[in-house]
Amino acid sequence: MTEGQPFVLYDCGLARQGCAASCSTLDDLLHAVKTASDSVIEHHLMRCVLEDHFELHEFPNDLARWCWDSLGDHALGEQLGLVDPYRHASIASLREALATMISQRIDQQDVQLVCRPGLELQLMQSRLIAYRTDEEFTTPVALAEALPQFTLPSIFFHVHEARRRSGNRTDDFSQWLADRAGEPEIVAAIRAIDFYFLNLIQLREELQRIFHQFMPDAPSVAGAAA
Amino acid sequence: MTLLERYEEVVGHQAVLHLRQLADRLQGKRVVHVNSTRTGGGVAEILGWMIPLLNELGLQARWEVISGPPDFSRITKAFHNGIQGMPVTITPADLALHRDVCRDNARRLDLSADVVFVHDPQPIYLPEYAPADTAARWVWRCHIDASHPDPTIWQHLEGALPRYDATIFSMAAFARQLVKPAFLIAPSIDPLSEKNRPLADADRLATLERLGIDPGRPLVLQVSRFDRFKDPLGVIEAFRLVKPYYPDLQLALVGGSADDDPEGPEVYADVMRAAGNDPDIKVLMLPPDSHRDINALQRSAVIVLQKSIREGFGLTVAEALWKGVPVIGGATGGITLQVHDYQTGFLVYSPAGAAYRIRYLLRYADKRERMGRAGHAFIHDHFLLIRQLREDLQMLLCLDRPGSETLVV
């Protein structure tokens, strides 16, 4: 989106593929982290936020959730929960960090934990399908007014996916505002959101809060929710 | 009003727009779906709505049904059971008959298409015997839990798979190690069908009266084929564990017979024996077109059970949740995609577990109602037919444009 252009809203969906492989132990997980395709790593570390339907998950990625919920290795779950894939320059770098963490944990274990049958981490990969909607916004206030109605996959596309597209440099919202010039505070505030820590509902609310803070004409989070 | 316009009123403008955007990329594609029955069971229900929608979107869709001698149903039922891990007896002659039936149907049916979707094991060998160039692509759609199949059965079915370009499973745990891509697409329900559309209360009450169910007393319901994997005897056991605490409680076990399921009458007889003379247990074998009756029963239940011990997806779970009724389901297969503890119902592992959760939900009406609301919203967002159709079309697009980069439509 370049200067003077409207903000074009996109939605997205995943075409998921099963890998017919699963993890029951940390050895399995280490093997998967080392050998699975980039798309598998990307799905379980980044795109899995799209699968959190009830805001049930403590941690932002599948590996941490599985270690905590299914394997019962809370210490490793906590560690993996702090891994931020968007701060890695490449999937290779992310893989290396994950493998090191899991290897160290394996070395510390006296007894190998095994998850209960049925609770295995089922490996999958996905391909992102982006849909251009018929919604466009020409002013920040119009964008802010519509924000509460944006689907969660739209939020994912314009924040998480935009970060991946831009090498973690920017999201689409702040980039569009920056291109318009004259909104430096809100641009900085949006770029400072710890987006990976939040689920998509929380992220949408955080965006609403920032728009309201810097644009008093924009609706508040509470008002928007009503 | 077109079909898509009617669905747009339920799922919203953008969801239907996305379908049209995908379909624009696939205009004129000839699509054939093949299964083994036109009536009974979830696959026939799905194809009943999918074909007209595909045509309205500008694809050329048809539905073909294979046929075979009476013994064929026995063999394919054994496949069905064997894929889901039940030990079965199958002879070389049975396997040969399966191939023969597929060969005959491959010659008889019009399978010329850009893509042929072959549903479940019954027609799996069609691509082997179809004339060359019949279809540009073959996709095998497995609706059942193939995670721990009987080795003999799987070895036989696996022989058909090299001819396929892709497979579809309902969830990751079902996917088998295959050369071809295994897409994950959960089934869905049709919110406008006779089974799921809103129902006038007078019609609902009239149905209960006709079926001998007291509308003034709480009803627990399981709707499913009379099939051992659905554990109807476990449902009766759970009901009897609860009954001393809630003497007013009624149970209805409601099933239909699919014409490709030869074991149904035998299981039905077992269920009737277990129910005995208990006037509060209604065992109803309804014709396959009893959609309105099922609708009324699901809307009348305080709790719906789907206590399966193996399950492909469990469309009846989605149906109940769509109607705002919490579900207690066996922790297996696709039920685990739909039932989330304390959110939309409870997953259970035994008749005792089912009994305990029935007591919980009967005790806390407020929680029951909250879970019902959450269940309806969850199905709206994830398990209505527009989502399944979108994912099917996404898959076709991915097959046309292989790779891993983002596809923009």
Question: Can you give a write-up of this model?
Answer:
The complex is a heterodimer of chains A (226) and B (409). Chain A is of the alpha+beta class and 226 residues long. Chain A is built from 11 helices and 2 strands. A two-stranded antiparallel sheet of chain A has the order 1-2. Chain A starts with 6 loop residues before the first strand and ends with a helix. Mean pLDDT of chain A is 92; it is low at 222-226. Chain B has 409 residues and is of the alpha/beta class. In chain B, strands 2-1-3-4-5-6 form a 6-stranded parallel β-sheet, covered by helices on one side. The relative contact order of chain B is 0.13. At the A-B interface, strand 1 and strand 2 of A face helix 2, strand 6, helix 15, helix 16 and strand 13 of B. Strand 1 of chain A pairs antiparallel with strand 6 of chain B.
Keywords:
heterodimer; A: 226 residues; alpha+beta; two-stranded antiparallel ribbon; elongated; disordered C terminus; B: 409 residues; alpha/beta; six-stranded parallel sheet; 13 strands
Question: What is the structure about, briefly put?
Answer:
The complex is a heterodimer of chains A (226) and B (409). Chain A has 226 residues and is α+β, with helices and mostly antiparallel strands.
Annotation, overall tally of beta strands of chain A: 2
The order of strands across the largest sheet of chain B is 2-1-3-4-5-6
H/E series of chain B, N to C?
Answer: HHEHEHHEHEHEEHEHEHEHEHEHEHHHE
Measured by DSSP, the beta-strand proportion of chain B falls in: 15-25%
Annotation field: number of helices of chain A: 11
Total of helices of chain B:
16
Distance between the termini of chain A: 31 Å
Strand content of chain A: 15-25%
**What does the main sheet of chain A amount to?**
2 strands, antiparallel
Q: Mean pLDDT of chain B, nearest integer?
A: 94
